Amino acid sequence: MPASRSRTERWKELLQQLHDRGGALEIAVKADPDRVDHRSDLVWRVRLLAITADELLVEYPSAAGRSISLGANVPIVAALSVGQNRWMFTTESRGVRVLGQGHAAVSGLVLKQPTEIERCSRRQFFRISTAELRLPSVECWPLLDPATAIAAETANRLAIEDRLARDGIVQPDSELAATADSLLLPDVGPSFNAKLLNLSGGGMGLLIDPGQAGKLDRVRYLWLRIDLRPEIPAPVALTAKLVHEHRDSSQHVFAGLCFDFAHHPAHQRFVVDLLAHYVNQLQQNRGAREAA
Questions:
Q1: Do the two domains 3-132 and 137-291 of this chain adopt the same fold?
Q2: Given the DSSP bridges, would you call strands 236-247 and 253-259 parallel, antiparallel or unpaired?
Q3: What is the pLDDT along the chain (292 residues), one digit of tens a residue?
Q4: CATH: 2.60.40, 3.40.91, 2.40.10, 1.10.3470. Which one for 137-291?
Q5: Where are the alpha helices (DSSP H) in 124-265?
């Protein structure tokens, strides 16, 4: 029996091994298949804290030290990786819970344990028969002087707040593109494109195509614009510091970054508020549909 098939059939052992090694799952609110305007899935990297007979306990999704709330009965897409192999499954949240007592007690988000998992193919690394993850697009610039990002991030905040104040009305794509091109830029190098692979408490992972990977050479800081439209009416700008990177067998680069608000601390709350708003919108959209 091929190893990949054997592992898929022994998925409970995979989860247990992940827990024993202090590993993490990736989770995202499952997109509403009837919403054609849904663009992206925010994927959170969360440590697997405990396993019971029918539940999984994971860390709260968080960004820059702040937890992101997920309600009960929210459909979730989850993934786990072992080397270059990846499995996905669908589940649902069951709210917050504390397991154990005293010093051994741990609290986190409870997920229903899956009945099966499915291995992703190399060509469809974010898709299985029952679910698909659509990663947000990220426009990236090597940031030459982090202090110059303050004015650009302030302009970005004012533009987003203005559009949200107008009932979140999103401009046509052509008008948005023209506006984005005219936005203030800090002191940066040539831009390149990436995908937002995941978020964690301290930073994020980017997936960069082989043709773009060379632009990371000798880069320490990046200025990013993350596209979360239509829920967020314009790309969200922020500064991040490159921590590590590695290439897979197909020469894609996985870059790990940490949030960097040292030069602009006031921007941290704005960014985290937007991420929380995005997740809340996904949950409200599903709730409204199911109540209709």
A1: no
A2: antiparallel
A3: 344 455 567 888 989 999 999 999 999 998 766 655 556 899 999 999 999 889 999 999 999 888 998 989 999 999 998 877 899 999 999 988 877 656 666 789 999 999 889 999 888 889 888 888 999 999 999 999 999 999 999 999 999 998 888 765 444 443 444 444 456 899 999 999 999 999 998 999 999 998 888 888 889 999 999 999 888 989 999 999 999 998 887 888 999 999 999 999 999 999 999 999 999 888 887 655 555 4
A4: 2.40.10
A5: 149-165, 173-182
CB 80 within 8 A of CB 56: no
- Per the CB < 8 A criterion, the answer to whether 78 and 25 are in contact is yes
Residue 231 makes CB contacts below 8 A (sequence gap 6+) with: 277, 278, 281, 282
Query: Which residues neighbour 183 within 8 Å (Cβ) at sequence distance 6 or greater?
Result: 152, 155, 156, 159, 237
pTM (two decimals): 0.86
Architecture of domain 3-132: Roll (2.30)
Q: How far is CA 53 from the centre of its chain?
A: 28
Give residue limits of the domains in the chain: 3-132, 137-291
Rg (CA), the chain: 19
Q: Answer whether 68's CB lies under 8 Å from 276's CB.
A: yes
Q: Report the distance separating Cα 145 and Cα 176, nearest Å.
A: 27
